[in-house]
Specification:
By secondary structure, the protein is mainly beta. Helices cover 8% and strands 38% of the residues. The structure holds CU-O-CU linkage.
Length: 566
């Protein structure tokens, strides 16, 4: 009895999970070329973090590479613990070479799959891994328990060093080189040169159901994913349960995660199946993005037969999935509009009904003047840039969060981020002549518990494109989306305030808009940016400053003593 009681208490409070992350270089051979990459503990992808909802996680990160480092726990809400969020110069100074920082946070009210990644320059191309959040002990999934759970992390592989790629692009103001391959769990698979031996393989037993924990860790690509001759039932996205629905193909944007159930065929089909991912991209001609396909293999093993029987049989028939065309926006729209919160008594959708503050942000590309005495490769000889409400965010040299906390914001940031575009225009019409953006480090300040509605509007200034917008520190409800210019009179009447999907990254449709709502109940400085790394680097990023509330439990906690210095 006493033991049961003790267990119940542990269960309610959660335990602390400890991890050691040693950031180190490691040699990795892909596509027959060996490259030295940044890794965690020499692993690629990096180690998986596993916790139950309610647990605390302590990750001791030691930086043993010759580059500054930070790690972000993508999608973890970080309630009052913004110091552990990770984006460089937003919530912390980087961990310098030879230094250690312990990220400490508690997982509250989330269950499903999230992920972690480096959050400085383009190092996240190789420094990433899955975060598996299991329900509290004794709490079942709201769907049939799977036989096995398998992380499937999509990545993007460059033969060159990714920091060289982006630095070169920034120097000439043009677009960065595209990647050489996509990967599943670090492996490009059989459709690339010299890569067949680096193929991810999933062996299943007939009649069993598998939970695939999908993560899109690619830098610059939204991906279609499909398993030949099998269906996928989506049960959760961004660590929030959804109403289950079944598809042959899904789409997942950088930053997004999804749990899907894969039902193996009832009897061994004596065949092998490709599971493949290929990019979705509009407007840009295929030469401007990596238009290739990564495949893994799904094979069957009969219960009782030895594991050796599961090796890749060349003589078995091979089935390949049919993926949508690279620019199939209709497919993307029909998929995303099927996403709805589970919205049950146990997992309610607490959509903010009333709104305290409304914001309208334009998001998209533009240009900045080419530095004197250089020639730039961007439009009209300018250099490419990107912005939110025309402000291309410049990262400060000190962390925003500590500048705010210590009251020393002067010279670091301004608190005047525009709530609406300064000069409205036809956002999705003929591109304007003036593509020039402004630069700045301006925060948008919100009092504690402000109920926010934000419409993000893609622009056609350089060309329409979808933008996977990620907000740190929060989940938000996607209450509406559409194409063309947002109409503030008609569009809100169609908002879903009953069971909208709740997530941390929404892909704003190309040449369209998305409306989100959230309650600003987490004090701190919260980064919001396009999860296309190239757009974020170009300045498609901003930050919210959510102030403390009046009660003690409504305040940002003090910084840990081992916070790195700039
Ligand atoms: Cu996954 Cu600020 O990013």
């Amino acid at each position: 009895m006493a033991a049961t009681l003790a267990l119940l208490i542990i269960q309610a409070q959660g335990i602390t999970r400890h991890y050691d992350f040693n950031v180190q270089m490691a040699n990795m051979t892909r596509l027959c070329r060996t490259k030295s990459i940044a890794t965690v503990n020499g692993q690629f992808p990096g180690p998986e973090i596993i916790a139950n909802e309610g647990d605390s996680v302590h990750v001791r990160v030691t930086n043993n590479i010759a580059h500054n480092m930070t790690i972000h726990w993508h999608g973890i809400r970080q309630l009052r613990s913004g110091w552990a969020d990770g984006p460089a110069y937003i919530t912390q100074c980087p961990i310098q070479t030879g230094q250690t920082y312990v990220y400490k946070f508690t997982i509250t009210g989330q269950r499903g799959t999230l992920w972690w990644h480096a959050h400085i320059s383009w190092i996240r191309s190789t420094v990433y891994g899955a975060i598996v959040i299991l329900p509290k002990l004794g709490v079942p999934y709201p769907f049939p328990a799977p036989h096995k759970e398998v992380p499937i992390i999509f990545g993007e592989w460059w033969a060159a060093d990714t920091d060289d790629v982006i630095n070169q692009a920034l120097k000439v103001g043009g677009a960065p080189n595209i990647s050489d391959a996509y990967t599943i769990n670090g492996l490009p698979g059989p459709l690339y040169n010299c890569s067949a031996k680096d193929t991810f393989k999933l062996t299943v037993m007939p009649g069993k159901t598998y939970l695939l924990r999908l993560v899109n860790a690619a830098l610059n690509a939204e991906l279609f994913f499909s398993v030949a001759n099998h269906t996928l039932t989506v049960v959760e996205v961004d660590a929030v349960y959804v109403k289950p629905f079944t598809v042959e193909t899904l789409v997942i944007s950088p930053g997004q995660t999804a749990n899907v159930l894969l039902a193996a065929k009832p009897v061994d089909p004596s065949a092998i199946f490709y599971m493949s991912a290929t990019p979705y991209s509009v407007v840009r001609p295929p030469a401007y993005f990596d238009n290739t396909t990564v495949s893994g293999i799904l094979e069957y093993q009969n219960p009782g037969s030895p594991p050796s029987a599961s090796t890749f049989h060349k003589d078995l028939p091979l089935f390949k999935p049919t993926l949508p065309l690279f620019n199939d926006t209709d497919f993307v729209t029909s998929f995303t509009t099927r996403l709805h919160s589970l919205a049950t008594l146990q997992y309610p959708a607490d959509v903010p009904r009333s709104v305290d503050r409304r914001f309208f942000f334009t998001i998209g590309l533009g240009t900045l003047p080419c530095p004197k005495k250089t020639t730039c490769q961007g439009l009209h000889g300018a250099k490419y840039a990107a912005a939110v409400n025309n402000v291309s965010l410049v990262l400060p040299s000190k962390a925003l969060l500590s500048s705010h906390y210590t009251g020393k914001s002067r010279g670091v940031y301004e608190s005047d981020f525009p709530a609406i575009p300064v000069s409205p225009f036809n956002y999705t019409g003929t591109p304007p002549n003036n593509t020039n953006l402004a630069t700045g480090t301006r925060l948008l300040v919100l009092p504690y518990n402000t109920s926010v509605e934000l419409v993000m509007q893609d622009t056609s200034v350089i060309g329409i494109e979808s933008h996977p917008m990620h907000l740190h520190g929060y989940n938000f409800f996607v209450v509406g989306q559409g194409f063309g210019n947002y109409n503030p009179t008609n569009d809100p009447t169609k908002f879903n305030l009953v069971d909208p999907v709740k997530r941390n990254t929404v892909s704003v449709p190309a040449g369209g808009w998305a409306a989100i709502r959230f309650l600003a109940d987490n004090p701190g400085v919260w980064f919001m940016h396009c999860h296309f790394e190239v757009h974020s680097t170009w300045g498609l990023r901003m930050a919210w400053l959510v102030l403390d509330g009046s009660k003690p439990n409504e305040k940002l906690l003090p910084p840990p003593s081992d916070m790195p210095n700039c």
